[in-house]
Specification:
A ten-stranded mixed sheet has the order 7-6-5-4-3-2-1-8-9-10, sandwiched between helices. Helix 7 links the parallel strand 6 and strand 7. The termini are far apart. The protein is α/β, with parallel strands linked by helices and about 325 residues long. The chain is globular, with a radius of gyration of 19 Å. Helix content is about 35%, strand content about 15%.
Length: about 325
Amino acid sequence: MNNRFKIYMGHLKFRLRYGILQRKNAKQDVPKEIRFEITKRCNLDCYFCFKKQNKTKELSLEKIKKIIDNIYKSKIKAIRFTGGEPFLRKNLKHITKYAKNKGLYVIINTNGALIEKNTEPLKHTDSILLSFHDIKRFEEIKDIIKKLEKNKIVVRLATILTKNNINNLEEFYKKSKNLKFNEWFFLRPIMNIKDKQLVNKKYMQKAVEKIIKNNLKFNMSCFIANSVPFCIFNNEEGMNSVASICIGGINDNGNSRLVIDPIGNIKTDYFSDIILGNALKDKIKNIWKRKKEQRGINSLPIKCKKCKFKNQCKGGITIWNTKGNIITKDPLLKDKV
């Protein structure tokens, strides 16, 4: 079977399976997924990462199980274990097993470097999101994917659109075209403590144009999975090009998912300082209902509400922070609205 066809079928399988879960959740008016940060520790120190490593006390296995029970009782269908690096938790296998036994769709976000030393969690995992942020890691990523393939796990790749990666996108495509993954997407970088310099409009425009060009050249269907304001372009043709390869704001700002941090606090996004409640004592479904009026386009700037792309774009990422400073509109919109 042609490798491209295998990738397409794997992509389709994931989207159908995950899409069914999302439709079920839509009917029940609950988040499509919970992103659960089970540690702040990481074995890498990527310069672009928006998550500051620290010695935040981690929840015990029993408390994590209590939160998983909360997720299950809220009729949420999917849980994503993130960090930091989840594989640094020695009891990860017990965490994934407990979640899987509850019938949840289990996803792990990982850089993959520690998988070989700790394969037990894979037995109770449906999907791995593998960080592929550095082209120099290609051979390592290739070997990791081979190991995951043996476990029949859905493999998805994520690449941060740093300035360097945007400049070298074609090289990423060339090397990745024969990898056996199910899906590959890009992520707009989030500002962090070390480097507050965001990828600006010029670079985001460049990224959009290069993704479209290389998708056609290499017969691939990569996309941007987090929010980018479509009006980084000043004309409808440009905005249509963003719309063609960017999911939009559905995955951000608490529009379809919630985050639980390492001590159980519930937030809309990893980088938000606004705490909605705590999953050890508050019912997640009640938190979700209380935030209903703030999701979608209700809280967008007036000019955004008049835009034809508002339902997909959703105004970009509307809550950003660094060192506790909250900005309530996307930095790329600052001269637009």
